[in-house]
Amino acid sequence: AQSVTQPDIHITVSEGASLELRCNYSYGATPYLFWYVQSPGQGLQLLLKYFSGDTLVQGIKGFEAEFKRSQSSFNLRKPSVHWSDAAEYFCAVGLRYNTDKLIFGTGTRLQVFP
Amino acid sequence: GAVVSQHPSRVICKSGTSVKIECRSLDFQATTMFWYRQFPKQSLMLMATSNEGSKATYEQGVEKDKFLINHASLTLSTLTVTSAHPEDSSFYICSARARLAGGPYNEQFFGPGTRLTVL
């Protein structure tokens, strides 16, 4: 069965430090890959997505993610974290045979210290 | 653009009562809406998919008689939790997708969620 794993439940970084949030998936083919951010009182916002082509994708708010097929990973990165980046981050997989269905990871809560 | 709202944001009800949650697409027509459930420290789980004017498609293990979904217009879908019990307490999130525009994927836009507590 398809699944998404985010191994880090909670990450704390200092403002200005670099960030990497890990995501691994299990799927028989190359899925569509997404990163969402969830802030309190707001809906999930799409940060970036990967469908095909260049494995390094750029998103909003200075985030990027790299798809590594050999590792079944799609890690999210940001070179310098801002306090406003504190939120919950979800990795998700979209199935190519059913593009309606998103399978989410359990999320990583990011805390940023000044 | 592409704003989805949910109402109420928080609701507390007694066991045995029914609760209705609304999901609205504010600035686009949503031909398809999705309902998710999120448990604490767990991922979002898709409950059902509804297309405007037709019956919802429920995921395996989701009781359709317990979670009634209506998608009567292109901007509104409702989820009614019938005869709610404490185990139904959860965070319910809807998303909406506009008419298919072609391409490999059509983005879902998410509402802010509704926290349901059943006493």
Instruction: Round the Cα radius of gyration of chain B to an integer and report it.
Output: 14 Å
Assign a percent range to the helix content of chain B. under 10%
**Average pLDDT of chain A, to the nearest integer?**
92
Radius of gyration of chain A: 14 Å
Shape of chain A: globular
Q: How large a portion of the residues of chain B is in β-strands, by DSSP E? A: over 45%
Could you describe the largest sheet of chain A, including whether it forms a barrel?
Answer: 6 strands, mixed
What is the string of helix and strand elements of chain B? EEEEEEEEEEE
Largest sheet of chain B: 7 strands, mixed
What would you call the quaternary organization?
heterodimer
What structural class is derived from the secondary structure elements of chain A? mainly beta
Which percent range describes the beta-strand content of chain A? over 45%
User: Overall 3D geometry of chain B?
Assistant: globular
Q: Helical amount among residues of chain A, as a percent range?
A: under 10%
Q: Which labels suit this protein?
A:
heterodimer; A: about 110 residues; mainly beta; six-stranded mixed beta sheet; four-stranded antiparallel beta sheet; globular; B: about 120 residues; seven-stranded mixed beta sheet
Give the helices and strands, then pairings.
The complex is a heterodimer of chains A (114) and B (119).
Chain A: E1 3-5, E2 10-14, E3 19-21, E4 24-26, E5 32-38, E6 45-50, E7 56-58, E8 64-68, E9 73-78, E10 87-95, E11 98-104, E12 108-113
Parallel strand pairs in A: 2-12
Antiparallel strand pairs in A: 1-4, 3-9, 5-6, 5-10, 7-8, 8-9, 10-11, 10-12
Chain B: E1 4-7, E2 10-13, E3 19-25, E4 30-38, E5 44-51, E6 57-58, E7 67-73, E8 76-81, E9 90-98, E10 108-110, E11 114-118
Parallel strand pairs in B: 2-11
Antiparallel strand pairs in B: 1-3, 3-8, 4-5, 4-9, 5-6, 7-8, 9-10, 9-11
